[in-house]
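Hi support team,

I submitted a single chain yesterday and got back a structure, but I'm not sure I'm reading the token output correctly. Could someone confirm the output below corresponds to the sequence I sent? I've pasted both exactly as they appear in my results page.

Thanks,
R.
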Amino acid sequence: MTFDITGKTGTVIGAARSGIAVANAIMARGGKAQISEFKTRDVVAKELLGLSSGDVAVEFGGHSKEFIQRSDFVVLSPGVRMDIPPVKWAREAGIEVMGEIEFAYRLCPCPIIAVTGSNGKTTTVTLITEVLKKSGMNAVLCGNIGSPFSKHVLSLKATDIVVLEISSFQLESTLTFKPHIALWLNFSQNHLDRHKDLQEYFDTKKKILSNQDARDIAVLNAGQPEFVALAKTLKSRVVFFNGKAQQGTLNSNQMAVLAVARAMGVSDAVCKDVFVSFKGVEHRQEFVRTLDGVEYINDSKSTTPEAGIWALKYFNRPLVMICGGSDKHLDFTPLKDLVKEKVASMIVIGQTREQLRQTFADVVPLTVCDSLPQAVSLARKCAREGQIVILSPMCASFDMFNDYEHRGKVYKEIVSQLN
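Hi R., thanks for writing in. Yes, this is the structure output for that exact sequence:
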């Protein structure tokens, strides 16, 4: 769709990577960019180096009504809530408010394959991108995976295909966003610190499908009864994956990729070649090293109990499990039987350590630690030859780290220095 911002002032809320990308895109399209940032200048100094022009008004240490209301439109960085005062001020003045994904979508000249879900998004979008590239298409991977959509949008051509990982935080602030293919992998409890209940979380995720029409495709997990019911209400063409008839050697993520590839006219043979050669993604069940017969695995991208279940089922050797992080008000009790079966010992850290201790202390030897280095040191002492030490937090990272990537990199650095 066309979005003419020539001569208009766009205010970006949040000066992180996505916010800087939006500001640069506004200026490149002939608009005037300004940034309103809650943090102080010294905290976001590194991100500000990414601005292509110094001619950007920036307010630090909070938001002001006057600054916001001199905008023609306001763009929220991912993670910025819709209920903050700047959004209220903008709406009072009749100023349109949108998220970074919505902003980039309005400038995007090519088809979009958007992927959401409570678990497995990063692996799936990476596989889809590799499959499309192997089939000769120019696929551009961006979004929640770490590279902002707005960073790529100005260099895209009509013949490209955007593969977009998208979270509920990003979907929350979409308005007209309409991907050609929308893949909803799964749905389970997550982000209940942000959404008031599970229904609100579901409704926010559902926005990935809400603007699709008969020319578009919704790819849904047949194993989720709520998706089967939802399919009956959609205007788009629905394709299911993960049905019983499809079960075989492929896992759920791979079957989802296969469904998307078929919709794009890519052969099963191309998909299977990619599946065989795929080495995984960083921070998702990533092998770090073997020391004294013990494998060390980085699964920092495990930010929900369901991701923890996935990790526990994946490995068939006894685990020393390091878990814990910031509190998203999630329930860990569904893992108790699996932890009892698979985990030799558990080490808990972070904001949720007391909740985890109360949940699992009666089924597994458990120790509370104050930091990740202390936890890894203890895991080294606990682990026996043939076992696996795994960082699979089942929680977000924001109590102790910038994000899950930072957490995973710190873990790998600590493990690499063990001797």
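A quick pointer for reading it: The mean pLDDT is 92. Let us know if anything else looks off.

Best,
Support desk
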